[in-house]
Amino acid sequence: MDFLNALVALSNFVLVPAIAYGSQLALGALGVTLIYGILRFSNFAHGDTMAFGAMVTILFTWWFQSMGLSLGPLPTALLALPLGIGGAILLLLTTDRYIYRFYRQQKAKPVILVIVSLGVMFIMNGLVRFIIGPDDQRFSDGERFIISVREFRDLTGLREGLAIKTTQGITVVTAIVVVALLFWFLNRTRTGKSMRAYSDNEDLALLSGINPERVVMYTWMIVAALATVAGVLYGLDKSFKPFTYFQLLLPIFASAIVGGLGSPLGAIAGGFVIAFSEVMITYAWKKVATYVLPEALAPDGLAQLLSTDYKFAVSFVILLIVLLFRPTGLFAGKAV
Amino acid sequence: MTDTQRNMVYFLFVAGLILSTGFLQSWNTAIFILNFGLISAIMALGVNLQWGFAGLFNVGIMGFVALGGVAAVLVAMPPVPEAWSAGGTGVLLGLLLGAVTIIAAVVVYPRLPSGRIRALGMIVILIGGFFLFRSVFDPAVSAVEAVNPAGTGYLGGLGLPVLVAWPVGGLLAAGAAWLIGKTALGLRSDYLAIATLGIAEIIISVLKNEDWLARGVKNVVGLPRPAPYEIDLQNDLSFVERAAGLGLDPVTASTLWVKLIYAGLFAVVLILLFWLSQRALHSPWGRMMRAIRDNEVAAEAMGKDVTKRHLQVFVLGSAVCGMAGAMMTTLDGQLTPGTYQPLRFTFLIWVMVIVGGSGNNLGALLGGFLIWWLWVMVEPMGLGLMQLITAGMPAESGLREHLLDSAAHMRLLTMGLVLLLVLRFSPRGLIPER
To answer: How far does A32 lie from chain B, in Å, by closest CA?
Structure first.
C-alpha cells in the first residue's frame, strides 16, 4: 500500500490531463451555449470556428517565429492569440452579416438555422483546409515542461513522477482568466447585462430599448474569442489538425447539453464532467491499483474499462443519460 | 412550362452532364459517377423520408451506411472455421451477456422504487454485467483475432450471395435505428441531431476497433461480386468477339460491361424504392406524416401517435440508407472503415436533399445525381481554375504550388456555397414539394 505514489500516478495520468482537457472543452462549450442562449440555435460550425481561429494564430506564430520574436519560456502562440481572435471575429461578423442575419429577419425556425450552420461549417472547413492544408501542424515552442518527471522524482524522492507540461499550465491559467473576464462582462457591464436580458426574454428586452443587432454582434465577438482561445489551447496541448477540431464538436456539444444549454456556468461544469469521465474510463488503472490494493488483489490486466478509441462513446453515453433523465441539464438551461 | 416539363429539363440536364463527362473525359468516369449517383440517390431518398416527410433531423447517416457495409461482409464473406472454433461461441455468448445486462437494467428500472435503492440496483446490474461481459468476451476476442491475423483474424461471414446483403444491410440499419429512435426521438430537433451525430461516430469507432467483426482498420477486401470478373470476360472468346464488333478492345469493354451490370442492379433497386416512396407519399400514411411534420400538436389532437410515427419513419429511412451502404460496399468490393467521414457520408447527403427539394422524392433523386456529379467534378474543375489563376506566376513560386495543392479542398467550399445559395434563394429546393 502506497497512497502517496498512487496519488502522484493518478495526478500524472488522470487529474492533470483531464483538468487541461476539461478547460478546453469548457471554453468551447461556453461558445456553443452563448450562441444557443442569444441566437437560439445549435451552431454546428463551432468546431470549425475553433479551427479557423487557431489557424490564423498559427500563421501569425510562424511569422513571429521567423522574425525571431518570442516570449522566452512561453509559447509564441500567446503573442499571436489576439491577432487570431481578430481574424475569427472578422470571419464570424462577416458570416453573420451575409448569412445568418437574413434568417434572423425572416424569423426562420431554429432547425433551418442549424442547416444553415451546416453550410457555414462546410465553407469554414474548406477554407481552413484550403489555407493551411489538412495535415498535422505543430506550433508550440518555448519551455516544454513546468516540471518534468525526473525533476519531480529528484525533488520528492518518490518512485512515481509527475510531469506538468507548460501547455497544460497555460491552458488552466488562460481558461481561468478568460472565464473570469466573461463572467465579469456578463454580470457587471451594461452590454453584458443586455445580453443576458435578451437571452432571458427577447420581447421584454426589445421593449426596454435593447438593440438586438448590437447584442448579436457582441455575442459573435465573444464567441470568436472563446473559440479561438479554446482552439489554440487545444492545438498547443495536442496538435492542430482540422479534422480533429471537427470531431471535437461532439464532446463540446455534450458538455454544453450536460451542463444545460444556455447556461454559462453549466457549460464549464459540463466540460469538466465530460473530460474527467473520458479520461477516467479510458485510463488503464493497473498502476494506481497496484499501489493502493494489497498485493493479492492486484489486477492482472490493464484494468482499463474501455479502449481509448471509444472516448466518443463515453461523452455520448453521458449525454444520453442526462438527456433521458434530466433534459434541462445539470444547471437548468433554457432548453425544453 | 408545366412542372413535369421543368422536371424533365432538370433530369435531362443532369443526364447531359454525365454524358458530357463520358465524351470529354472517359466513359469509365462517367459510369463511375452514374453508379455512385444511383447509390447517392437512394441515400437521399432515405433522408428525404425522414426529413422531407416527417421533419426529423438525422445527421447520423454515415453510421447507417457503415452498418450496411458490415452487412455485406457478414453475409457474403466465407466463414473462418478456425476462428469460429477458437472463440466463436465465446464472442456470441459475450454479446448475449452484454445484451442481457442492458435488457435487465431496462426491465428492472421501472420496477424499483425511485431513490437510493434504484440507483444502487442499477449500479450493481450495470457494473456486474459489464465485468461479466468482459470476462467472457475478451478472451474469445483475442482467440479469434489470433487466428491468422494477416489474412483473416475475424469470424468471417455466412458465405451467401452478396445480393442477399442488400436487404440484410437495411435490416441491420433498421435495428440500430429502432434502438436509437427508442431513446433519442421525442427529444427536440437539435438534440436528436447531436445524438445521431454521436451514434454515427460510435458505430465507426466500433468498426475500426472490433477486429473480430470485420477486421477493423485492416479492412476486408475481395468481397464476392454479383457481376463477373473482368479477367474472366477477357478470356471469354464470345465476349471478346462482341467487343471487337463494337470496336472496343477487350480490357475497356470488360470494365465498362461490369460497371454497367452494377448500374443495372442499382437502377432496379432505385426504381423500386422510388415507386414505394411515391406510393407512401401519396397514401393516407404520407399525408398523416406531413400533417405531423407541419403541426405536431394538431396531429396529436387528431389522435395520431406522434412518437410512434416518428419512430416508424426513422427506422424506414435508416433502413434505406443501410441498404445503400451495403450496395456501396458491394460496388467497392471492400470494407474500409477508415474512409467513412461525416462530411462525405452525412452532410453531403443533406446537401443533396436540400438542393433537390426536401419533401419531394423526385427532388431527392435529382439532388443525388446532381450533387454527386459536382462532388466528383469539382476537383478537376478546381485544378483547372487554379492553373488558370497561377498561369502568370513564376514556376517556382511557393504560392503557386500551394494554390495548386489546395485545389483538392475546393470541394467542401463549393458544397457549402451551393447549400447556402439554395437555402437563401430557393429554400424549397430545385423541385419543391407539391
So the answer is: 12
